[in-house]
Specification:
alpha/beta, Rossmann fold, globular, 6 helices
Length: 188
């Protein structure tokens, strides 16, 4: 039986797209980009994925590390890393980047996505969920970066797109905005 560690440690539940991905992708070496306090990393770990969790907030990484230590979790590691560096040093079967890109330097988006793609094993997956700002749904939150219509799909035009949408959704804090969501598989 899996204990709900997210509730135990006051974390938000794992992102709904992460929960869905765990139903269709076999556990593999996974990178959680922008892990914050670890809500998705802990969930991935409980589902049998070997997770590297990165975030540029040392306090958040320390909190995740304390959960890993307290629960004796051996398949999740946490590191401070600035995603803007776009210099991943390992390859992964799954790179998950949910509700993270909107906090990065807008000038680095293309480089970061290219680095994610380069660092994904052939046949591996990228999951991205990012806020959008469109004419129909201007983003009500002043994020440093938001996607435009079709921008994320275009970035993955050479990959097999498993899922793509640009739907209005609700953030865990209750804010309603449009998100682009993609699950794409790197060709073999």
């Amino acid at each position: 039986m899996i204990v709900d560690l997210n509730s135990r440690y006051g974390l938000n539940p794992a992102h709904s797209e992460v929960v869905e991905v765990c139903k269709v992708i076999e556990p593999c070496k996974t990178l959680d980009m922008g892990c914050s306090n670890g809500r998705n990393a802990v969930y991935f770990g409980q589902q049998g994925f070997n997770v590297t969790a990165i975030d540029n907030n040392p306090g958040a990484v320390d909190m995740l590390q304390s959960i890993i230590t307290a629960e004796n979790i051996n398949n999740v590691t946490a590191h401070v890393y600035d995603i803007n560096n776009a210099n991943l040093e390992q390859d992964y079967g799954l790179i998950s980047c949910t509700v993270t890109l909107m906090f990065i330097n807008p000038d680095r988006v293309d480089t970061i996505i290219a680095d994610m793609q380069k660092s994904t094993l052939a046949g591996g997956y990228n999951l991205i969920v990012c806020a959008m700002s469109t004419e129909e749904h201007p983003c009500p939150v002043p994020f440093p970066f938001t996607l435009k219509t079709g921008q994320l799909r275009e970035a993955y035009n050479k990959w097999d797109v498993i899922k793509y949408n640009e739907d209005v959704g609700t953030m865990h804090n209750g804010a309603k905005l449009q998100f682009a969501t993609i699950l794409a598989r790197k060709p073999l």
